[in-house]
Design brief:
homotetramer, 4-stranded antiparallel sheet, 8-stranded parallel sheet, 14 strands
């Protein structure tokens, strides 16, 4: 870290800061500038509460130098991680793009299996569908629970698609892990550290959705929790952030793709359905995600969005999905990748 | 809800929307404007997936009319809720302001008890302190666990202060409820609905911190989860939101106070420590919170912020806290309230 | 507009709102719901101060129904506008994508002409470069003024590129219009309505950059000012918004592309240089913009970014630009467009 | 500045960065850490394009150390600036709080003079009112122009209130300066640097409103433009920022008050009307502003908000204003200030 002293700080203030730094086990290095004095701390500061130094007299601010993530970082592991999912070992993070599609919630066995066949045929390798739904409104449909998981498993059996489904609570971790190929951690739980560790302990692939207002650093630290707990197969997922924009439900910041590729070895997929909130935007944002370098997409597909129990406004039909996959294939080719 | 049709929509599109509305059990009422047709849905839409109507052809957008919260709303309960906390039944939401103070984390028994005495003497009625800490960084200090809870209980015994401490995980709910007077749900868990329900089931007072990017509606719906589960004693807490501002760690939006007072009967307190991230801002934001009409404050106080294991940059010393309480008393008097 | 009454409102409150609506020249239509009464106002509300109705007793809120823009809207003009720029009448908004590139600021005649040749050869149709620079810091380089404009004109003469340059002040409108093919209105001036009108009066093509925190509606209303003043050739440009994200200088919200295509007939181009703030992100965000359906790109290119007088961190070299154009051509082909 | 090198950078990369720093006229100082090397640049970097160094190979990022403002900073002028406004030399920034009130727009001579008398009687020292209105919608009421200014002057004559009115365009600077006591620069023009300089050249007091998404640094740099141009009497005004919050029109970040007091010697006033967008929030946010340490308030007051031509939803009546001033007086006393 770099500690910037206020203008007018005395030798005694600088000495005190140097002492605090040494107490942390770091080495202090003072640089007297023309206007300001700064004190650099040499050593590994990542596990320290360096912010506390801001409380020392005449300190203006503390600037961290090292990003705090370790096992999620590209510095530690320069080669990209490729995660394999489902009965067919579909890859996420390799040359092939991973297309994951399905309803927001599992509503009904027949409908789910129809959708699964439809998205499989169009090119998907994964089936999404929530059995446990985190609902903002306590009066809304909360999901079918284990019954929903069973339908997903049946759909996998028939199609070979990898099942991607949300884990909402530690008490369900064994149950969800039994049926799912990929445990999804939703946006609302990105900072639920106990849940991250429980998911990681299963050793299964985990799809980690970025929190609505999480920083890139917090996103990668959440991945770090999962990896540390035992699963190295973390798939990052961007699904939009909260901003002042009102023509979308969330703002989809695609520059996270090159940023993640620079900072981390983990694959990243994009959710253009939640990432915009409107079905009409899903095709263009899907293509944009591929061109941005994403490793896959996770898309809400429903046969009858007007009657969907959840997320109808942002679900596309199987027909739109099939057309989108065709277009996506062409953009993927232009990017030297394939579907 | 109001469904706004696109310009150029035909009778058949309008009829289809009306039919969807009737299928939801609502009554459709068509209004043909000079430029646009809108279809109003009459009935209680709060538990319905009204967004799905956006998927119908030629629908421009869907505007909800009713706020979805019920038991948290002032419409349902016009009288303000007063929550009583701790051995002395200190009130939150009444004429007296509730001052809650203490370290970010419980670090050590002696230090905790010293702080407890100091803040009590200055006018506090509650003692804050985390035994379980949600840490962004997996390598950071994670709290003392049950040992920390025991220290808190001992401090209560000596001072009569109500213990306010964070519940991070369902598995700890019994343990935390045994020691705490108020269960705190942190920012990162505001959308952790299972945890909200577990906290509510204890029947104990719950302090619910607003998520970094939660809307007012989501905040009150989270309270609704707790109330529905069994605790009517919910204390809302604003602790800052994520914005583009960088001179603060979070932006503290005090207009939430009159908004909550208008929409809900629940009391609201402000956390100016996390709400700004800088100790030097805590006194002025504390006074501003009182003048805004808040029902109390929750403030991080540490005897030696330079060596705090967590949140040192935003902790004030007991001396600063005592001075602040004196100033706060004067502002409270100006507002016809007291400390 | 729809006026939502508070719960508990009386007939007299509803009548009063109806009267206010009739005073505005609109027709009031009352709908009594099970929980709330709403009053719909029928007629063209777009030029009215409808917000004032919120002040009436027992009004909860006012919901506008009509988007306020007219000549910028697709409803009024369903066919997309194609703008032709520069000596070669390059199109913006047609099948061909418009690539505009050049230095942030014009710094030197020789360097500018070299860059112009390089970007032309790589496939650009426009040359960007600021002669008047809006600088946040009054001590920073402010641009070469008319001299810079002359260099741009000379570069156009040699290459046939259209000159795109910023108009910062009404007093320079004649001067800038004399040299430029496209008048650029910068982010900081999107709400500078007098400048918008002055630019529009020239009848020249205008590139309008979205404000950092402008809504889509405000963006299109700014275009409306220009069109109303006399220039129908408005090119919208997205260049990033201010959010909590810190790994970018601005968050680039590409979903604005389908939103603009739905709401307006105007073409839209993307600025991935200012839209991210980092050179390493420019190639991927350029390709993503094309796949999102944008009509072109405006990119900062500098032969020696380390010594650029402005925006060095986000400028790419001519070599990187040439490589990017080759990749962009492939993505454009996949989108049935060309460069 | 501090240049942080990437992990794996070689001596040659470090040398190159050191050379770039020396070329800027600064002195390079290399610190080899355990994980990263950083290069500190010693000297006054404030006028330099330091961002360009980010383009050098193996540079991770560039961290500025010095805030770029000079004459607006407290470092340069430790004593607070007190601005005197209007015929009675009312002070802004001293012990007395400056209360400025009046309609959003000047609509009519009689009504304006009535309001002026009413707010004067209640304790105001300034009269606000727009003669030139920046309207997002080109079809909205644009203000009375010079006629409006004349009404304001007449109201001043009768009441002694200082006239605070917006300058929107350089061409009106002489006209507005002739009638106004304080030139207001609106939010939309905070980055309109030519207008800032034109206002500063008049030597008159200038009230500078913060841009919707401006950083604190940009806000103070805009003040720097005005001071450099000739007016040292700059009054900062916070009027709300754009965030994801929807229960307000803008989020009012009162922590800007202690931040400005720490960084600058300039006074700061708060606009709770635009800062929230709802009349019902104005009283509590006014009191909160005073308790936060603001030097005054600027409030929209209209005798008949339901029929106001602009900003009706956020205007309070003269009766509400009188009540507010009484409450404000008590909070001011609690803060050792007065009205």
């Amino acid at each position: 870290m770099i500690v910037v002293m206020k203008s007018g700080s005395q030798q005694t203030h600088v000495d005190h800061v140097a002492e605090l730094i040494e107490q942390l086990g770091l080495k202090a290095h003072v640089i007297v500038g023309t206007d300001r004095t700064v004190v650099a701390a040499i050593g590994d500061e990542r596990d320290m509460e360096i912010g506390a130094v801001e409380s020392a007299p005449m300190v203006d601010r503390v600037v961290p130098i090292l990003a705090p993530y370790k096992v999620a970082s590209r510095e530690v592991k320069p080669d990209p991680t490729v995660v394999h999912i489902g009965p067919n070992n579909a890859e996420v993070g390799g040359e092939k793009l991973a297309m994951i599609a399905g309803p927001c919630s599992v509503e009904d066995e027949t409908k789910l299996i129809e959708i699964a066949h439809a998205v499989k045929e169009a090119g998907a390798v994964g089936l999404r569908g929530g059995a446990f739904k985190p609902r903002t409104n306590p009066y809304s449909f909360q999901g079918l629970g284990e019954t929903g998981l069973k339908y997903l498993a049946k759909a996998r059996e028939q199609t070979g698609l990898a099942v991607v489904t949300e884990l909402m609570s530690i008490e369900h971790v064994d149950m969800v892990a039994e049926y799912a190929d990929v445990l999804q951690i939703g946006t609302r739980n990105m900072h639920n550290f106990n849940l991250l560790m429980a998911a990681g302990k299963t050793g299964k692939p985990v799809m980690l959705k970025r929190g609505w207002s999480a920083t890139l650093e917090e996103f990668l630290l959440a991945a770090e929790y999962i990896i540390k707990a035992g699963s190295t197969d973390v798939i990052l997922c961007e699904r939009g952030i909260r901003t002042h924009e009102s023509y979308v439900r969330n703002t989809l910041p695609l520059a996270i793709v090159p940023a993640v590729k620079r900072e981390s070895h983990l694959p990243i997929v994009i959710d253009p359905s939640q990432g915009t909130g409107h079905a009409y935007m899903v095709p263009s944002m899907s293509l944009a995600s591929i061109a941005a370098g994403a490793d896959g997409l996770i898309i809400e597909v429903h046969a009858d969005p007007e009657h969907a129990l959840t997320d109808g406004a942002q679900s596309i039909t199987p027909e739109t999905f099939a057309k989108l996959m065709a277009d996506a294939g062409r953009v993927a080719t232009a990017m030297d990748r394939s579907i």
